[in-house]
Amino acid sequence: MCSPDRRTWGTSANCGALGCITVTNANDYCAVCQAGAVQCAGATLQTCPADQRQWNSKACNSAALCDAAHQQCDVCTQSTCTGKVLNKCSSDGQNLQSQTCLSFCDAPNNRCNTCTPNSVWCDPDTAKLNTCSADGQTITSVQCATAGLCESKNSGDENICHPPVCAVGDRRCDPSNLAVLQICNAQRTGWDLVATCASAALCDKTKPACTAPVCSAGQKRCNGAQPEVCKSDLTGWMASGTACASSALCDKTTFLCNAKACSAGDKKCMGAQPVTCNADLTGFTPNGAVCPALCEAQSGSCIACTSGQTTCTGAQPQVCSADLSGYVNKGSACASAALCDPSNGTCKCMVGEHKCNANLTNSQICNATQSGFVDDVPCGAAGCNAGTNSCNPTIVCMANQFQCTGTPPLTLQQCNASGTALNTGTLCTTICDPSGGDCDECVAPKFDCTSNLKCSASGHFTLQACDLTTTTCNPAGTCDPISGTGGGPGAGGSPGTSGSPGTSGSPGTSGSPGVSGGGSGGASSNQ
Question: Are 314 and 297 found together in one domain?
Fold first, then answer.
């Protein structure tokens, strides 16, 4: 600074980096700021002028709105949201415009979004599972069957449309309690109770409600003659025991059968009154008028006599007619009235008539006066036949049995069916066989080697004896093997005349080779 005498300069201030500003014809000064610099001092925007002498100041609405970078006071610094209203700040901070968003206000991105970025939610109105894009501008939707089947992580464990548990209107009987009728709920997520039926059998999924029970548990009734009890499932009635004899006998109080007083068709007499069992089997009712004579107890009808009752009208035996209306003649008249027996409606005996005595040892004959029987023919051990009233023939043999009689050759005879005689029989030239009822020609196991037959169990040569391609027939009843290796003579035959031993020997003229020597003897012709 210039000294007061203006002779020398003295130091007034150190201006620092901004330097000292020289002024012509005026005092110099230290620069306060860099020309053109802008800064904010709190809410004050300060601008350095070209003379750098001091800051030009402008008060902003707030320190935040002091914008040194743009050398201005801003109206706003960033976009904000007030509810769905987007307060949108212009890029230069000078303009603030408001916009009401339809869905979401996104201040950081300075826009209205369709949805919250990356969010997943279920729309209860549309039953859609919605997924918001990362920029919040688009929604991808999956349609669920119902809103209740839509699950998102906002409200559950996973983002999914669950499959329906059941169809709209479906009904079922609860598997855990078949008496419970259920219906598919509105959201198709499960089953709602319709009603609990009186029994499982009354739950019908094809119907909107339980079937009404036909009867109550333990209830009884009479269905005509049949006592019945309510079925355990209450769907109807079932027989309780056997049916009563009539509907009237099924007790309407105890529902048990009362004993019947009589059976259908029963008839009897009450004094002279014929009666019959009533339709209910509970008692008897009159069956026609009172009888003028007799009421027959067994038939319960009016009669003149009883069935089988006999009498005599003079010498004529009589019996009660089939309709019991009176008597009719029975056979011929007796020789006299005295011989007619009213107790049995017969004559005491007929001339020449026979009958067996009480111990069946004599065939008796009617006596001369026809008043009884006297011994006539003694029957001996054969006895008297009560059916024919004559002596039985003497038994000489067992009926239809065979026997062999005489001396060899024997005769085969058969007893007749009554056992009273033998037939003349058949002369057996070989063997008489009474057990088989035949003349046999042999006894097993004998062979007929001439015909190569063996005796059957019935005593006849009917079966092939030996296979002659590999064996030779032995009359003793064996088939001996044919062999060229030095065998001995065959049993029961003679050695061949020219057979030689060993494998190269020739058999005898009529014999087969023996097992250990020359040819075996020829077969015996004896039978």
Answer: no
Domain holding 108, by residue range, is 80-113
Residue type, 26: A
Rounded to whole angstroms, how far apart are CA atoms 372 and 387? 19
Helix (H, G, I), strand (E, B) or coil at 88: strand
What whole-number percentage of the chain has pLDDT above 90? 41
Distance from CA of residue 490 to its chain's centroid? Answer: 73
Q: Is pLDDT at 225 greater than 50 in this prediction?
A: yes
Tell me whether residue 125 is exposed, middle or buried, using C-beta atoms within 10 angstroms of its C-beta: 0 to 12, 13 to 18, 19 or more: exposed
Do strands 29-30 and 20-21 pair parallel, antiparallel, or not at all (unpaired)?
antiparallel
**25 and 67 in one domain?**
yes
pLDDT at position 248 is 94
Q: Could you tell me if residue 210 is inside a domain?
A: no
pLDDT tens digits, 435-460: 888 898 888 888 889 889 988 888 88
Are 21 and 56 in the same domain? yes
CA dist., res. 521 & res. 517, Å (int): 11
Instruction: With beta carbons less than 8 A apart as the criterion, state whether 140 and 183 touch.
Output: no
| CA separation, residue 456 to residues 432, 436, 461 (Å) | 15, 12, 6
Task: Please give the Cα distance from 208 to 186 (Å, whole number).
Answer: 16
Please check whether residues 318 and 281 belong to one and the same domain: no
Task: List, in sequence order, the alpha helices (H) in 192-289.
Answer: none
- 273 belongs to a structural domain: yes
Which residue, chain included where needed, has tokens 């997943």? Answer: 120
Residue 381 backbone phi and psi in degrees, to 5: -65, -25
C-alpha distance from residue 331 to each of 305, 323, 334, 347, 455 (Å): 19, 19, 9, 9, 67
What is the number of residues in the chain?
A: 527
CA distances in angstroms from 89 to 63, 70, 74, 512, listed in the order given: 17, 15, 10, 141
For residue 218, being part of any structural domain is answered with no
Domain count, the chain: 5
Peptide bond connecting 175 to the previous residue in cis, omega within 30 degrees of 0: no
Which residue type sits at 48? C
| 471 within 8 A of 487, measured Cβ to Cβ | no
pTM, rounded to two decimals = 0.38
519 found inside a domain: no
C-alpha atoms less than 13 angstroms from C-alpha of 259 in its C-beta half-sphere: 1
Residues 248/227, Cβ–Cβ less than 8 Å: no
Instruction: List residues bridging with 171 in a β-sheet.
Output: 183
Element (H, E) at 206: none
**In this predicted structure, what is the pLDDT of residue 2?**
62
